[in-house]
Design a protein that fits this description.
Elements (H helix, E strand, L loop, with lengths): L22 H4 L3 H9 L13
């Protein structure tokens, strides 16, 4: 039996180390915070020279 999995594509969901004025960092996102803490995940470079 295979385990369920989830693929989430969050267009415009920027992740940055500079949190000044970062709406994603400032927003209250308890469900997404829990997913990141409890489950394996990865981050992709999807802008500029990476694409």
């Amino acid at each position: 039996m295979t385990k369920p999995y989830m693929l989430m594509i969050l267009d415009g969901w920027g992740i940055d180390t500079n949190n000044d004025g970062n709406a994603v960092y400032i927003a209250k996102t308890p469900y997404l915070d829990m997913l990141e803490k409890e489950y394996p995940h990865t981050r992709l470079l999807c802008s500029g020279e990476a694409v």
